[in-house]
Every structure is written in structure tokens, then in C-alpha cells.
Amino acid sequence: MVVPGTILPSDDEVLCKPRDVQAASLSALQRAMSAMKEVKRAVNVVNEAKSCAFAAFRSISPALPANRVWAAANGGDDLLLLQYLASVPHDPAEQRPLLEYTNRQGQTPLIIACTMGHLRCLQVLLLYGANAYAQDAQGHTGLHHACIKGHYDLVQVLLTVHDPALRNREGMTAMDVCRRNIDGHRRVINSAKCLEIIEQRCKLFEGWIYESVNNLASSALRLRSLQSWVRRYGVVFSIGSPDYVEVAFFDVVDGLRTLTPRSTILFRIHDPVMLNTQRKMFNPKPFNFTITGSRKMPGVGYLGRPDLFELAAFNELEYERWTTFMCLSVVSFLITSVSMTQKDSV
């Protein structure tokens, strides 16, 4: 409703003039351009920050090439690994940080190469003096990891520079790791190959033997004289100790011994061996002898208190072989074995 006396604008006055529209458009365009300049300025600032950060990374990275060596070993790139190591002066102070760099699990380039099964990388690292005895956070060496993964080709190389008797935090040697894999049905074929290689390195003596074992009567009455004789195939292994050897007793199935032992004794070589000890009430064996040792528990370490273990040879010839070895030869074998291990570790 129009109030009387009000003067209404004309049509020309209602519509904006062209110059006013042009001025308004120009003003809006200027504001937009100003905003774009601000955006460009912000983008430039961000890009400059990125460039500075990248330049800083590039400047730091060559000063810390150890992670590159580790990454090359992890990825199996032996040529790149060789290139990195060859570019460093032949100086232990310069090479040590490269070869001893570790990830969060404490794994060195050599350990990760063994874990991943990179044979050529392992050979390059050994060529440049990488520590084959380095252990990760779990106490595993490269040999432990190679056995866990069943990399038997790496095991063969490592045994030229590594003592297989070194134990991890669980008290397990590389041989124990192989046996656990087989008992747990993990990588059985490859683990068996690893185990065979290690056994050949550690074996001191082998032959048929009777082992005296508990039965229901002897366990219930706690009488050693009621124990039964069980036919086994015995193998004596060096465990890297000047005082102990491992005597492993294997079952024999279809003429072949099992991969893992039925029982294991840690025999102290300086303790006397008692010959011709008749301890059985039933089925005594004429060619028997008794040793002192500790029962090695399955899986870890050698737990168990010292005890007497009665054994018997099949015949007089085997009796002479076993008793001669246990009384005399084991000491000389062990001295030779330990000397070879110390020579390899130098």
C-alpha cells in the first residue's frame, strides 16, 4: 500500500545503470583476484616448507646409510647391498654402523637376510665382516632364524663361520630349533635338511645301544632294577661345552632312525663311567655300563637333576666301542671340536 504524498521512482531509476553494474563487477573481480593471490601465497608457503623438509631429508639420509643397507638385505637386493658397502671406506669404524644397524626387533642386516632366505645377501655381508654371532631381542642368531624358516642353503654357509651350539633366550640351539619345527610339523622337509647339516657338524659318535627306561612297575614302586631295556640308536653330539656332550637316543622304524630323539641325556665327560653294573632284577644285559648326567627336557635347555643312566651294548665289540669312547675318546674329540669352533669364531 502506497502512502499518499509518496513520490514513486521512475522505471529508469528502479533499474541500475550500466556503469554501476560494471563498477560492481569490477570490484567483485578485484576481490576474487586478491583472494586467489592469498591462496597462491599460502600454496607457495606450503611448497617451500615441503621443499625444505625434503632437502633436509636428502641431507640427512646420506649421513645415515645403515638403514639402506638393512633395507637392501631385507629386500634381497644383493647388487644394491654390494654397492652401498663398496662405497664406504674399508674402515671398521665406518663399516660397523652399516653392518650392525638394527630394527626394533634387534635384527641386523645379516639376521634379516637369514630370516628372508637371501643367500647372496648373506654372502655379501659375510664378505664385509658382518657379525654372524649377532643376536636379536629374542637371542636368535642368523643361524637360528635360518633354521626356523628352513633355509638349509643358508645353514650350510653359516656353519662355516658360526658355532651351532650358541643358544637363544630359551636355551635352544639351532639343532633344538630344527627338532621343534619337526615335532610341531612345521616345514618338516626343509627343517630335516637343516638338521642333517647341523648333525654332521656336531656328531662325535654313533651306534646301537640299549637304554634302560621306566615302565609301570618301576614307576609305581620307584625301583630302578625293574626298568625295561629298549633298543635305540644312540648319537653323541658336541654342544660347544668343554664339560658336557649330548647323548641322543633315537627310535628306529623300518630300518631308519627317527628325525628327532626319543630321549636326550647331557653327559658330563669328567664323571666316571661305571662298567658292568648289574642293576636289573629281570633280563640283565652282560655288556652294560652306567653314566651320570641330566635329562634334557623337550624343547628348552637341559633341565633335570643329575641322575644315573644305565645303558648296554648289543655285543662285546659294541661294548668296547662305546666304553672306549665314553671313557677316553670323548675328551679328545671334544678338545678338537672346541678348538675348531674357537678357530671359526676368530
UniProtKB/TrEMBL annotation:
The keyword NADP does not apply. Keywords: ANK repeat, Repeat. Pfam families: Ank_2. SMART domains: ANK. It comes from the Eukaryota. InterPro entries: Ank_Repeat/CDKN_Inhibitor, Ankyrin_rpt, Ankyrin_rpt-contain_sf. ANK repeats lie at residues 105-137, 138-159. This is Uncharacterized protein.
